[in-house]
Amino acid sequence: MEENFDRLQKLLALKRYEQAPPGYFTNFSSKVIARIEGGAAELSWWQKLGLPVDFKPALMCGLGIVVCGLLSVGVLTSAFEGADQPLVGLVMGPPLNSPGVAPFNVIVSEDSPASTQPVFSASRFDQFGMRATPASFQFNK
Amino acid sequence: MSQALKAPPEPEVVITPERAPDAAAGSTAADDLDLVRRAKNADIAAYDDLVRKYQERIYATIYHMTSNHEDANDLAQETFIKAYSALKSFKGDSSFYTWVYRIAVNKTINFLKQRRNKNHMSLNDLDFSAENDPDMVALVSDKTPRRDIALSELQEKLNAAMLKLSAVHRLVVTLHDVQGLSHEEIGRIMDCNVGTVRSRLFYARQQLQAYLSDYLK
What is the band of A105 on the pLDDT scale with cuts at 50, 70, 90? Predict the structure, then answer.
């Protein structure tokens, strides 16, 4: 095995004879220095902020925009879907008989449309005593 | 899987002028630190000296990794530019030589990951002295009437086989078998221990041997 590796190493030594074009290194450092003086070595804004050098701001921004977009679509969709349904749940209002505010009564309706009734099993919520109750409001004049 | 393979004893390494022995690098470490200190103080001439000192080795490493002169040219320039921009973060814990090598290696591996399988070889010409090297002469068939053609064909096969290796395995072979760096130095550059370097080298050689079996009989 070693003898075979020895032959392989001799073959790999061939790569040492691969030379860059003549005169290539004569101007190499001057090209590097010219690029540095041209501003190529200036730190990017994320490097100035201390973020890693391989941080990709475009990728991160794109990802952020996609996430925000999906979030917005989700919020808007749920808002439109819920707009035509009666309000379900606990509603906070001003205290009754407060000055300047028309008093209203909260009337719990037992014959609300079936679509407002919770269809899921509330067993997990039951352990905390939480319930969703259909409600409607009637303002007193 | 490669970690489990037992590493062979270290082979004898023939020193050639292109090689970069550790001792030579070590003896100039103090000079490098002085140049780095001056370069940090905006002495661009000092940085020019550093570039001149390491340009060939950095270029060669990247070239042997990519098998493409144009890519090696771009990456080598970017390596030195990035090293300059990060010079303030260089604390001198390692030698400048190891530090800049690490930048070159990371840049090249990232480049190869992005390029994936789109390998396009753009090989440099072989030096004329290759034809007179007894080892090279022995590698090509004695019956070949035109030895230069056989050598260039061999060069192409060798580079194609190298490109089949993973970037990490190719790097170990390049640094050890082509550039002659020690296991310890490769470990420092790749930020891994010597055992890992040895096992990767063994696995890479096995792979290369399989790919080049026709030329190793």
Answer: low
Q: Using CA atoms, how far apart are residues A64 and A72, in angstroms rounded to an integer?
A: 12
Residues of B in contact with A54 (CB under 8 A): 110
pLDDT digits (tens, 9 = 90+) for A13-38: 888 888 888 889 999 999 999 999 98
Q: Which of A11, A29, A41 sits opposite B48 (nearest CB)?
A: A29
Spatial distance between the Cα atoms of B149 and B157, rounded to a whole number of angstroms:
12
pLDDT score for B18: 42
Asked whether the beta carbons of residue B216 and residue A36 sit closer than 8 angstroms, the reply is no
Helix (H) or strand (E) holding A81: helix A57-82
Give strand pairing partners of A88: A134
Among chain A residues, CA nearest to B7: A2
Position B12 pLDDT exceeds 50: no
At residue A50, φ and ψ (nearest 5 deg) are 90, 10
Residues of A in contact with B151 (CB under 8 A): 14
Farthest CA pair distance, chain B: 61
Rounded distance, CA B49 to CA A39, Å?
Answer: 19
Out of A18, A31, A43, the one facing B77 most closely (by C-beta) is A31
pLDDT, tens digit, for every residue of B110-128? 998 887 666 677 777 777 6
| B86/A53 touch (CB, cutoff 8 Å), yes or no | yes
Q: Are B8 and A5 inside 8 Å of each other by CB?
A: yes
Identify whether the C-beta of residue B7 lies closer than 8 Å to the C-beta of residue B199.
yes
Output the six-digit token pair for A42: 């200036």
Give the count of beta carbons closer than 10 Å to the beta carbon of residue B76. Answer: 28
**What is the C-alpha to C-alpha distance for residues B126 and B118, in angstroms, rounded to an integer?**
24
Is residue B3 left, alpha or beta, with left meaning phi > 0 and alpha meaning psi from -120 to 50?
Answer: alpha
Half-sphere exposure at residue A32, Cβ-oriented, CA atoms within 13 angstroms: 31
Are B48 and A36 a contacting pair, CB within 8 Å? no
